[in-house]
Amino acid sequence: MCGIVGAIARRNITPILLEGLKRLEYRGYDSAGMAVVRDSELQRERESGKVAGLEAALADRNLSGQLGIAHTRWATHGKPSRHNAHPHLSTASVAVVHNGIIENFELLKQRLQEQGYCFHSETDTEVIAHLFDANYRQQPRDDASRLLAAFRATLAELDGAYALGIVHRDYPQELLCARMGSPLVIGVGSGEHFIASDPLALLQVTDRFIYLEEGDHAHLTADTCEMFSETLGDAGRSKPVYDAGRLGSVPSARSNLSTQPVSSPVQPAGSDPKSSSGCWSPVRRPVQRFEHGDQAASKGDYRHFMLKEIHEQPEVLTRTLADKLTPEGQLLTAALGPKAAELLPQIKQVQIVACGTSYHAGLVARYWIEGLAGLPCSVEVASEFRYRHVAVMPGTLFVTLSQSGETADTLAALRFAKSAGYLSTLAICNVPGSSLFRESQLRLMTHAGPEIGVASTKAFTTQLAVLALLALVLGRESGEMKETAVEEAFAALQVLPQQVRQVLELEPAIAELANGFADKRHTLFLGRGVHYPVAMEGALKLKEISYIHAEAYAAGELKHGPLALVDDEMPVVTVAPSDELLEKLKSNLQEVRARGGRLINFVCQQAGLNNDDGIRNLPLPKADELVTPILYSVPLQLFSYHVALVKGTDVDKPRNLAKSVTVE
Ligand code: G6P
User: Fold this and answer.
1) Model pTM?
2) Which is the closest atom of ligand 1 to the Cα of 658?
């Protein structure tokens, strides 16, 4: 949430910052701003609304320089407005961009006001700018490390989450940044350095990145990159990392990244960090090459990122399965990590925790894990789980699902789980350098590639593919599945990408269904069994991007309440593959029709459902039962997309939402 970008170079960096903001807009888009240091002066431009507004404002101003920071905001403290937009300044000397929440900002603000600082916004971020200025003034004037010392003194007083970029008008060659609870990468260029919330922001200028870890801060010039980490322990400042949760422990992000370093680490320049508090030490972090290429951040020929991402699914499903299966279709247990062989036989049950769309993937997985592996499986949203006193049974595997690997609640749940007696932690995630990935013992990558549309699509189906594999591994391990059944299931997964391709060809028919739907204000989604969570995800997609109120129900629950809502203004969308529950579902559909309700059914070709007055069917190819939850998700994504198109909403950036929710 919120996107930050910064640069120190020997060329004008304003076009780089602007392009970076456009690429980060999925993280927040209610206001944007930029500050540039030039001739010992800080120049700033801010606008409310999307980055295009800032771009228009910049066109009228000659904002240029070789050092600058920029921000696109998703409001937490203070309404979306120009005066709350970042960067925030102090005494026209310091400019700050921030992603996260400073929890002790009120206390700090009071103190700074008593010292004479005037506040011009309602944000928590503005305290950082004034605090930095106050700390800077306290450092000896002749101290060569005055800027860094002020930065550290400031960090030492902040409680909460932050990714920060800071510049000072008297230091036109220096860019400061820090990470605690919100992601931040350093982009390594040739004689230039950049910072951003996500590598995608910088692919136009570099493909080499350093992923800062929790508690790291860095001091950058065009040529040097000094990084420091917090030294915990008796001598160090041991403050809890944001969002560890009230039951949580202090985490330590120390595991290896899955991507290999591509060159020698950037050397810490200087051996003595001259820490004013004595609790920082120089650190090396590997430089990693971004594997997806710059086209990952572009829409190509598609009208929206969401549509591009829906159409990428055959390819990314293939890629996701490929590195976990041998050419003979055997699952590589080792794909889970070196400890997998030892841990798998000890798993007695599974606890899945996630948010949003990832949570729905977990709900599907419960049917698979219980049905195929015979292991009890619980699924819970992270924001609830993290604040609950949980009873942990021995042998429970704790699984987190996340596209971004940075979702604050999921991360906090993981950190809590690490000290709660779980057997082990497994992250299923789409970003290899993410916090979730680094902090989990076992890992499975979804290779969906960068997902930019706020509404998740390809990340969901690739998560499902990985979860199906996990269920098969557990099924084989528990003895619940015979080897031939496992092999048949692998085979079903391998033909899935081709079946998804066939479903994508139905887009014109799906668009036509959507045409007659866009004027509706409410709708129900129905499914049974493993397709109930698929219906939940379909309803979520529709409400996220078309703003039509959508609720999902297990079809058997219809007559226990929601049927009261059904009339010809309340369409009902059903997920109806040919499975053992189809006949029961058909009875539920009759109940809807008998009340004048209009049905849109995503059905199996063989289901024997005919188009009729008030009933529209979209027949889908027959597929193995294991993969139907994945296959039937695709037309629901296309349906929501086309409804949103007709309604004219901002598909990739729906109102009030953002991707990568790094605040609680
Ligand atoms: C936000 C996004 C959703 C996503 C959820 C969880 O709400 O808009 O699309 O499903 O966060 O994100 P994660 O990255 O943890 O999967």
Assistant:
1) 0.83
2) 8
